[in-house]
Amino acid sequence: MTVWNGLPTWVTFSxxxxxxxxxxxxxxxxxxxxxxxxxxxxxxLILALIMFAKFDPQxxxxxxxxxxxxxxxxxxxxxxxxxxxxxxxxxxxISLVVMTTIIAALAAVGSMYLKERLKSxxxxxxxxxxxxxxxxxxxxxxxxxxxxxxxLVATFFLVGIWGYMExxxxxxxxxxxxxxxxxxxxxAFISLMFVFGTLNLDQLQVRTSQLxxxxxxxxxxxxxVIWGIFxxxxxxxxxxxxxxxxxxxxxxxxxxxxxxxxxxHSGVLLKMGAYGLIRFGxxxxxxxxxxxxxxxxxxxxxNILYGAALAFVQxxxxxxxxxxxxxxxxxxxxxxxxxxxxxxxxAVFQAVSHGFIxxxxxxxxxxxxxxxxxxxxxxxxxxxxxxxxxxxxxLAGGLALLGLPxxxxxVSEFLAFLGxxxxxxxxxxxxxxxxxxxxxxxxxxxxxxxxxxxxxRWERLTDSKAVETVPMLVLLGLIxxxxxxxxxxxxxxxxxxxxIVTRIGG
Amino acid sequence: MEKALAHIDWSAMTxxxxxVTAAAxxxxxxxxxxxxxxxxxxxxxxxLAVVGAGTYVAVHFGATxxxxxxxxxxxxxxxxxFKLVLLGGSALILLMSLSRxxxxxxxxxxxxxxxxxxxxxxxSMMTSSADLVTLFVGLELLSISSYILxxxxxxxxxxxEAAWKYVVLGGVSSAFIxxxxxxxxxxTGSTNLFVxxxxxxxxxxxxxASFVLLSLFLMMLGFGFKIAAxxxxxxxxxxxxxxxxxxxxxxAVVSKTAAFALVTRIVLVAYLxxxxxxxxxxxxxxxxxxxxxxxMIIGNAVALRQTNVKRLMAYSGIAQAGYVLVPLAxxxxxxxxxxxxxxxxxxxxxxxxxxxxxxxxxxxxxxxxSAFAGLYRRSPLVALTMTLMVLxxxxxxxxxxxxxxxxxxxxxxxxxxxxIAAVMVVTTVISYFYYFELIRQMYFRPAPKGNPLAIPIxxxxxxxxxVIGTVGLGLFPNAVLHALGQLKWTEVLSIPQxxxxx
Lengths: 506, 502
Fold this sequence. Notes:
A: about 75% helix; B: about 500 residues; mainly alpha; 19 helices; ND/Mrp_TM (chain A)
């Protein structure tokens, strides 16, 4: 296995290759810039697939681990702080990494509608990919934070420069909310360093277990600090997820960002919130999560119902999808709050599945917008006649979104709710209403857009081109593959999730 | 005790001697040169002197403390590290003002260079003094040189206004400092900081507690002004805006670093023994933390409304002063390391930012934020370097500014001053708005002109050093941390082996 130890590093930094080539292409060469930009997402995809293939689902602990000491802060009266460059993959991160590389590659294809400033666009795009991959593969909290901030800065530019009319407000709001989230996260991480003396994830796991094994800590002075850290982490990743009431920034980004960035944002960036909640919330502070579980469940319920209800009244397809994301993130919260194996599995499944589904939906929206110049549902009416293929894919995506059996959304929702019904049957029961609402709002939107009276101005519209159809079909294929054969996703994460569940004693 | 002048080891003062010689030489040359002769080479001479002084300090870095002139002058690790930062900053600023394009309407070139040198000399003296008198002499040398520098563009009203404000308010603050120092002398009968350190506790315990505190408060009033900390910051925006950009950069970087050296030394050395009486904990720490917190809040909040770049940088500097005060206030465990690291990072990024501002201002012929509009389209590389340095000022990883703030935050949390940590964090997020406003201008706004921004070669070098330093220190802070960790800071606080007489 030693040959593969550097694999996480290679995966994370492989987009640099594309960036390097991009630097040497003149600004006017749009064709070349597009091709190189798309090609730049291929090396991480290939390397991630290699990693996935080499990943041993039975092995406990981190694989392909790499640990190099990096920064040593000398402090008097102690040996100082050691921050390390530690990378590695476990069952939780491997599926998210593969998902990230796939969505990034497809989003790069989805960037074809852009016409200006392609060079800086693709440079930032690949930088964003580095940040995202690093977030999922870092095994040191300091390093995690650095990658996390890279995604923040890159997204700010991508939204602010290439977005729609209100792009600057969206970028600003994004910066404010997420900046505050990162700041809280940093405070939490520094405090963790003080309490446990390390920011290495594996060491932290050992030391938090040791602390929680002695119930006396509840009486000690460390109790408020631990709670403070835990709450900071909850809020920081709650903003990212986003959990109600921190979701407003995300709606704006969904509506204003360029389509490819929304694919990434909705597909991957929101999942960093879920990842952080499980990795740093659930896994490091089991007893605290137990006490907060009801609260998380209630938040999840609010997310599900609030998102679904508002998705129903939206007239803009992008806003329907944005609110449906809020609703679907509630299901992730449900899965986490369940605190059992099934629920957690549902949460991770939902993260991956929603990543693919929302990427697909936004790709379709982008294609529709490119042709019709609108995203308002009422104005789209009757598209099916002019564009049977696109409308068909939209319908299929809608079915995935509402959780049709045989597609990934069903498996995820099923698992999350199954997990939830054991500890909180009532909340889960009410939450299940969200599934019905999802069917209502999805079908309403999709039907109104594709069927309904045919408008004369759609006469001359062309159906989707191969370059659009291929990524759509790939995503659809993945969604169905997970739906039909969930083991593909479930197996690699099994051991890791079981370890987490053992730690939380659920 | 009495030593003949010949027996004193003058080599420890080499940096100052180089600077004073060069300044004197420059004055003489300025007088002797015919009016029409070019004065450009005087700038190179000044640069050579500063680089020479800096090299000397760098070579002897880490040497043990040396006392000179009856203990009034000292070269110790603190002095050396502060000196390196401010000599480095001065060298970059000199380099920036050398090129023909960057004259900014300063007619008296010779005067400009020797005033810069005397200012650096004053700053350098401040870092090395162990006596209230030498400290004050250094401070005034720096201040008076700066007053003239601020108003060196005699024909411009805003420059005049800047100098005028600076002189009046600077004079008042010097008076406060002097008044405070007089109490210290009255209470302890000495101006030597180490003697003061030993005797002030006695004074505190024998019924003069209120006078001890009064002396500190009075000095803090003056220091607050010198480091441009709130609520004594009012002068900074006007002076920053009215001065030539190179002088603004000097005030922001060198002046501020020197003032921090002064504050650290006086507060820490003179009042150190009060820790045992819990006076630090109960009075000094809250006092400094309130100043720090007010600076962060006022600086960052008011910066949001600025439209002039140099005013924006002034408020940003006020906020940064607040951050740097935290380790001193909380007596953090890595007080010197974090302060110096931050000042070094701050100097690098600020000098670089001002170098860009100078070029942009000259090109647009005004200093409003809109001068940066569309810079990315005109000169992508300049925009990118500016972005990196502004991100560093905002404290975004992977930059020196981030690591500096991180380090200071560690100090605040380690000493359990959570509220100041919270203020730091919240104001940092607020600061994103105005720092990103610069970025928004550069990337999101259309460019009024199409031609690339002209950057003189010397300015380009300064920007290059700023960016490389900012990113390098952000990625590999160990390089500096290791060196700082090696130094024996405690030597600074301890009393020299042969305490000099009163």
